[in-house]
Design goal:
seven-stranded mixed β-sheet, two-stranded antiparallel sheet, alpha/beta, binds zinc ion
Length: 301
């Protein structure tokens, strides 16, 4: 029996056992469940090649996707008090911060960068959902204000790419103060006569939806993105009613007037360039190839 138990059984087990897939090489699509090779995923800007599901995109990849030739300069984020309330739940807030910083290689849940977009200067503030759920505390609020200031300074449009669970609980009331603060940033950009565009990505919720994310001159959303203030489960429990199919998804919100455009990630860069062109040169312009650049604007009755 020894030969059977010691030799044959482990061999059989090894044959049958599920092999562990290295996480960094293959990603499972959260929509269709197919495995996608990392190179294919990167080449396809993190959109599933099988079902077109838009996976979450890290801030770095987002910036590389949008700026001309993928080139941009990041700005150093303003220094803020790391843990103003000395907050502790199951773990210390400072520990959670360190862990997120180690995992994402970012200092905060937002990255601010400037570069060229369609041949003219632009500033982009992009969220990283992997960093504490893209939550907005004092650091994120200050970074957004810095982005707005930079846009005004450079006479450049500001683009915010949101992906956030809302305000950062660990900073209590201070995180809620970032709602009016970021709105002031938007107003500064607007007062300077510069375009302010928002790209709502999955998921955008809570305090971020309730502040700068809903204030874009044009609200663009990625397909299938959940955009909400309170989650569907909370609403269902409160109103004790079943919510409609696709509730809070980008397409549903487009139909109900909460967003203006739902754009495939592949077309996002071209769309932003086009919109900025339209917003900066108010006169209808022809792009020279017979294409009508005003086609995006619905005709006035
Ligand atoms: Zn898929």
């Amino acid at each position: 029996m020894n030969w059977l138990t010691n030799f044959v059984r482990p061999k059989l087990r090894a044959l049958v056992a599920r092999k562990e897939v290295p996480e960094n090489l293959w990603r499972k699509c959260s929509s269709c469940g197919q495995m996608i090779f990392h190179r294919e995923l990167e080449a396809n800007f993190y959109v599933c090649p099988h079902c077109d599901y838009h996976l979450r995109l890290p801030a770095k990849e987002r910036l590389a996707l949008l700026f001309d030739e993928g080139k941009y300069q990041r700005i150093e984020l303003p220094k803020t008090v790391a843990d103003p309330l000395k907050f502790r739940d199951l773990r210390r807030y400072t520990e959670r911060l360190k862990e997120s910083q180690g995992r994402t290689g970012e200092n905060e849940a937002i990255v601010v960068a400037h570069g060229m977009l369609g041949g003219s200067a632009a500033v982009i503030a992009a969220f990283d959902f992997e960093f504490m759920g893209g939550s907005m505390g004092v650091g994120v609020g200050s970074a957004f204000l810095a982005a707005a200031k930079l846009a005004v300074l450079q006479d450049a449009p500001l683009i915010a790419v949101s992906a956030s669970g809302g305000a950062r609980m660990q900073e209590g009331i201070l995180s809620l103060m970032q709602l009016p603060r970021t709105v002031i940033g938007v107003e500064d950009v607007r007062a300077a006569g510069l375009p302010y565009l928002v790209v709502l990505t999955d998921p955008t919720s809570g305090g971020v939806t309730a502040s700068f994310a809903m204030l874009g001159d044009v609200a663009i959303a990625e397909p299938g993105a959940i955009i909400c203030f309170a989650g569907a489960r909370v609403i269902e429990k409160t109103i004790k009613e079943k919510l409609p199919e696709g509730f809070q998804r980008a397409e549903y919100l487009l139909e109900h007037g909460m967003v203006d455009i739902v754009s495939h990630r592949r077309d996002l860069r071209a769309l932003l360039i086009r919109l900025i062109g339209l917003l900066r040169n108010r006169k209808p312009v022809s792009s020279g190839n017979g294409e009508d650049r005003t086609a995006l604007i619905p005709a006035r009755p």
